[in-house]
């Protein structure tokens, strides 16, 4: 069977031979109407009849896997696509290191695998829900299209996880698949499973921060699951990563364009002090200190997604061969970690210190460190824009102890520089470090939609290149209401 080929003859495009897997096909077809109901209720508000220039995955060949065309979002072909099976793949870590990868769920790891798949699956629709109102205030048709591209692909990622649940987990898998459509981001009674996915995404700067920082947590998790000894999960995640790259591109370039426009406006108006917030805001752009506050918020919320620094769950998942490390196969060590250690940031006698912990229980910390390194690349790009414009201002990642709700630092307060402070100081100063209501109101005041072809809101620079190399005057969304 040719796994590069995607079968479009069934209702659900796939490269997993669904037409011969009647039971799973039936289960998925049974789940489909609920998914469409969810999309109509909780997907992008409006624009469902608009033609959007979207990419759709039609192959899993890395050399050419997507095609671009105008599609109405409800007609997007949400498919089930797994990266090709690697011949003779072995489990690359843990107690089962070197044994053949599992094609079926091993009974002893069933509960753990199901939990990991459900948690990953839950984040996918959650972000669509969080972003559903943004279409109304898009700064351009280009950005509107990118939002919808991210949204339909998060929808496809939900399908990816639901396929695994329905194919490999029987009745409880089907129940979990239904639950994924029932929970709602921010809902008091039935929220999404992870904190950052219940926060609001009120404006486009938040959206760019979310796709930069929170989708990047997704990238790290998918990389770890792509190492899994459970081969179908590994293959699913590997293909999801090809789509995920675009989401982080949207975030990184989005923030770049905001920073660039702010610097241009300051230069045009001969503003010399980028921290003169009132002066910069009067120009109708977002001042750099406020961008820093948004960054502080989204980075710290995303750090919480990695869980506790020291975790026996993480150790168990690794030992079992279920969830590996970032780029596991490229790491040079024994891949068992029975006797090695890893330095973990901890609170020791009121001070933040590095303490060696058994590497196995410190896997969350390690993944979070890999994440922080990955995040730092954006700072370099954004700071280059600021420096090239002649301004002395640096965007920085706050200390990992800052504004945390999970792990070692959840019960203390720290400044973005990592200085421990008491509750009173925190309450007095938090608005210096995190977006205040007034900051939110100011950003909201800039969020007026721009729908003319090739035009951009005055607070954001146009992109350097178009999607699919389209020219600047390309109509990315043909709005029909
Ligand atoms: Fe995703
Ligand atoms: Fe994503």
In brief:
The protein is mainly alpha-helical and 481 residues long. Helices cover 46% and strands 7% of the residues.
Can you give a write-up of this model?
By secondary structure, the protein is mainly alpha-helical. The protein contains 12 helices and 7 strands. The strands form 3 sheets. It has a 3-stranded antiparallel β-sheet. A two-stranded antiparallel sheet has the order 3-4. Strand 5 and strand 6 form a beta hairpin. Helix 2 packs parallel to helix 4 and helix 5 crosses helix 10 (363-388). The longest helix has 38 residues, at 231-268. The chain binds fe (ii) ion (2 copies). One fe (ii) ion binds at residues 124, 154, 157, 218, 244.
Q: Compounds present?
A: fe (ii) ion
Beta-strand portion reads 5-15%
> Which class of secondary structure composition applies to the elements?
mainly alpha
Low-confidence stretches: none
Beta-strand segment tally:
7
Spatially, the strands of the biggest sheet line up as 2-1-7
Number of helices: 12
**Helix content range of the residues, please?**
40-55%
Mean pLDDT: 96
Question: Notable features of this structure?
Answer:
single chain, 481 residues, mainly alpha, 3-stranded antiparallel beta sheet, two-stranded antiparallel sheet, 12 helices, 7% strand, globular, binds fe (ii) ion
